[in-house]
Amino acid sequence: MKSKKKVVKKEKEKKKSTKILRRYMDVAGVKSETSRIAKIIFNVCIFLNLVFSGYLIWFFIQHKGYPILYIIGLTLMIWTLAFLALVFFVWLFFFVFMDFKIFHRRKSIEEALPDFLHFTATNIRAGMTVEKAMWFAVRPRFGVLAKEIETVAKEVMSGSDLGVSLERFATKYNSNVLKRSVNLIVEGMDAGGEIGNLLTKIATHIEEVRLMKKEMAANVTTYVIFITFAAIIATPALLALSSQLLGVIGEIFSSIDIPSGTQMMFSIKESAVTPENFRTFSVLVLFITSLFSAMIISVIKKGNVVEGIKYIPTYIIVSLLIYFAASSLLGSMMSGIF
Questions:
Q1: Which residue range forms the structural domain that includes residue 116?
Q2: What share of the chain is helix, strand, coil (3-state, %, to 5)?
Q3: Which of 58, 60, 192, 330 is the most exposed place for a label (fewest CB within 10 A)?
Q4: Where are the alpha helices (DSSP H) in 160-274?
Q5: Residue 318 has what pLDDT?
């Protein structure tokens, strides 16, 4: 009995996770089956594990002398712990990718919503019902919103209530703009008010809020310039200068010849930080600094990190290029002095 209960419980959990994944994929606009996605991810993990195992086999062939038990244990560890880690990170990458798709779909809906509401209001004033006004307001350029309104229209034609279908559509995407707009429309229909004027006011309010956000982003341009200068110009230049000074100081101390038996108030030892270690440290610092600087700028300009994710690779690449260019330039200048 206990084993049957466990099997039933596992089946329920599997069905629940499948429903969650299906809902997640629907919001992201992915039409593939969940079983196919799971199979692809599993095959990718197997392939990566085989590649890594092949590399280890090649490494052990090139470097003989490893005990056979060590090789077997390492291989087993790869096909257990490493495989589980691969599955986790591949699924994590998949869900992050889905989050980006959901974000862009939500942004597309919010951008097209004011124009759609204006068209709907015009159709209502022309004498159409709300359902027909929404249907005839759909334009191909509305993209995701057009497809979602078509889905709502089909549900209404099949007998579903318009308010229920609109609320289901609003809760599908985590958008405050969409939820508030739909709630106002549903309340207006229930109250029997003038829907055309209400839709016009909602669309105008959305456009005003969007314009206000752009003005706020323009007002903080000074902060963006300061953070950008500090992250991709000042920090790489200072780290390049420190790296060259570290090498110069090391050469000076190595050229000092102290006679034996001479007593000094301080001792001269080799530096604990080598230029190679400092270069690795500089690259790591630039990577972290550029990453967080791009995220801060994204929050300042766009209001969230996801919308400005495109800044991150640009900041990292530019800061590293400036660092290596400044290191090369300062190295050639100091070589002629010392």
A1: 105-216
A2: 85, 0, 15
A3: 192
A4: 162-172, 176-191, 195-219, 221-229, 235-255
A5: 92
Torsion sign, CA atoms 91, 92, 98, 101: negative
pLDDT per position as a tens digit, 108-144: 888 888 898 888 888 888 888 888 888 888 888 888 8
The pairs formed by 23-30 with CB atoms below 8 angstroms and a separation of 24 or more are 24/95, 24/98, 24/102, 25/98, 26/172, 27/102, 27/105, 27/172, 27/173, 28/98, 28/101, 28/102, 28/105, 29/101, 29/105, 29/144, 30/98, 30/101
**53 & 123 share domain:** no
**128 backbone φψ class: left, alpha, beta (φ>0; ψ -120 to 50):** beta
Please provide the size of the chain in residues: 338
Q: How far apart are CA 81 and CA 33, in angstroms?
A: 28
Alpha helices in 78-161 (DSSP H): 83-125, 130-136, 144-157
Last residue of a domain, one of 48, 70, 103: 103
CA atoms within a 13 Å half-sphere pointing along the CA-CB vector of 12 = 6
Q: Which residues of the chain have pLDDT under 70?
A: 1-17, 64-66, 250-273, 334-338
